[in-house]
Amino acid sequence: MITCVVEYVIDPRKIDAFERFARRWMDLVQRHGGTHHGYFLPAEGASDRALALFSFPSLAAYEEYRTLFGVDPDFVAADRIRDESDCVLRYERTFMRPLLPGDLG
Known about the structure:
Blueprint: E1 2-10, H1 15-31, E2 35-40, E3 49-56, H2 59-66, H3 73-85, E4 88-96
Antiparallel strand pairs: 1-3, 1-4, 2-3
């Protein structure tokens, strides 16, 4: 399993647009073989940071999902929310290998 951690710097004045964007991507990940662990939005402290975590069974499965970017109409529509609203100022993806409670021992 591989988990993608996406760190966002967002425009806090456009949190509603970011939430629309996030809801679309959660659905897309789930529909295309991944498990979305959610978006984590500002609550207290820094108001311009957000995180997303989602997993795929393998890097190959993630790469197959990525082939839909810019091609599949649902993916294009999800990105259009981000692009037209400018709710995301920048983001960075990191891939991690989870160690889960079931992996103990």
